[in-house]
Amino acid sequence: MTFKQFSLDKRIMDAIKASGYTAPTPIQSRSIPKILKGHDVMGLAQTGTGKTAAFTIPILQNLLTGQNRQLRALILAPTRELAEQIHLTSVSLGKGTGLRSIAIYGGVSKNSQVSKLRKGVNIAIACPGRLLDLVGDKHIDLSHIKILVLDEADRMCDMGFIPDIRRIIKLLPTQRQTLCFAATMPDDIKNLTNKILKEPVRIQVGKMAPTKSVAHTLYPVPQALKKSLLFAMLKQTPTGRLLIFTRTKYRARNLARDLAKRGYRAEALQGNMSQNKRQRAIDGFRGNKYDILVATDVASRGIDVVDISHVINYDIPDSSETYTHRIGRTGRANKTGEAFTFASTEDTRLVREIEQALGSPIERRTLQDFKYGNFVPEKQFQGKYSKQKPSALSRRRRRKRRTRHKPKKTHTRS
Ligand code: AMP
Question: What per-residue string of b and e applies to 284-309 under the rule 16 or more CB within 10 Å gives b?
């Protein structure tokens, strides 16, 4: 399938081309025609499948006709990072159409959001709390909304946004198109979508399991040795951009600081940082200022960096859904990636849950020449063990690097 088949406006086609998209991804092939025709859609798709453009492209197309500068599309997102990310996609794909979009989220002053709203916007991408604030202050009029999108609805549910979403829906015209995207389908979302979607077209892309273009590896290690294992691993494994997940904000901050002390270009991304600092961290990661980002789950939503070669679960995620979300940051849009998970004995239940979601056991590895002390990794988590050796991806990267004119170091080593 090609984008031509959707008969999109030339300005949108030009923007798609400029974004480097040559062919629609599966979720795009299936959603775009339905959304263009005005159907409600329930999309089950993981992050990394191209779902943002799957709803942004037809929204832009459908808004081309109609009143200019009237707010007609509302996209609800769980975090500021994701709202900002969708806004960027909307700006780049809508470039040339004259349609304007705004990202609305808390943690920053209302002034610039209010002044943008006054000038007139067509698409609002909003976190529920701040949106309700602005509605309360009468800065935003939702009475002309024609399209509502709930993006990462399962995550909004996890974060307790369902009551706010219900409140927002009451403010919208009943005659509208509603689209809902989620990676998983918990009961709360089922109940909500049964009420608000009208005869939705159900689109599921891939299995409800982590992205296939990612190689998964488990490294058994006791808590106390995690940091030394990570440092040893970074010395042995050539990586490109690396995203490390920790369970708490405190651990993210400390680990990023320790990595920076060792000479790595690393930054943290966690909820205690101001919005400006978080944005600087993401921009720095995207723009090659940092090679390593150490993030917590909530803060990492919406990181859209295509070239993440490795995701390291320094702390195991708290569910297989979170694993899917984390791993969705690598192996994006037809690239391959690697996911390393550090697991200690107390993580056995979660390892089993993740393997069930994957549908196969995760390869166990030990790091060659690493001093595990009394800990015998091979005795943990029954399964086949192999010694860490450069993976296919790493070998390819090495070869590529050797053939470059001047080899570029991905990390500054201490
Ligand atoms: P998403 O699932 O929306 O977070 O998108 C994942 C990544 O895929 C983003 O970096 C998009 O820019 C990229 N992407 C979206 N659509 C396409 C496409 N048709 N071809 C190539 N990359 C795409």
Answer: ebbeeebbbbbbbbbbbbbbbeeebb
Answer whether 244's CB lies under 8 Å from 295's CB: yes
Question: What phi and psi values does residue 220 have, to the nearest 5 degrees?
Answer: -65, 135
> Tokens 């942004």 — which residue?
56
Task: Say how many Å lie between the CA of residue 280 and the centre of ligand 1.
Answer: 22
Which residues pair with residue 123 across a beta bridge? Answer: 73, 101
* The pLDDT of residue 283: 87
Is the distance from the beta carbon of residue 211 to the nearest atom of ligand 1 less than 6 Å? no
Q: Report the nearest-CA residue for atom 20 of ligand 1.
A: 21
Q: Is 332 in the pocket of ligand 1 (CB under 6 A)?
A: yes
Domains present along the chain, CATH in parentheses: 3-205 (3.40.50.300), 214-379 (3.40.50.300)
Residue pLDDT, tens place only, 198-233: 999 999 886 444 455 778 899 999 999 999 999 999
| Closest residue by CA, ligand 1 atom 14 | 50
CB within 8 Å of 281: residues ≥ 6 apart? 267, 268, 269, 273, 290, 293
51 in contact with ligand 1, CB cutoff 6 A: yes
Distance 243 CA to ligand 1 centre (A): 18
- CA dihedral sign, ordered 54, 151, 319, 377: positive
The residue with greater pLDDT, 208 or 184, is 184
CA 368 to chain centre: 32
Supply the pTM of this predicted model.
0.61
- Average pLDDT of every residue of the chain: 86
Q: Which of 304, 308, 329 has most ligand 1 atoms within 8 Å of CB, for mutation?
A: 304
Neighbours of 399 (CB within 10 A): 9
Atom 10 (ligand 1): residue with closest C-alpha?
Answer: 306
Q: Kindly give the distance from the C-alpha atom of residue 61 to the centroid of ligand 1, in angstroms, as a whole number.
A: 18
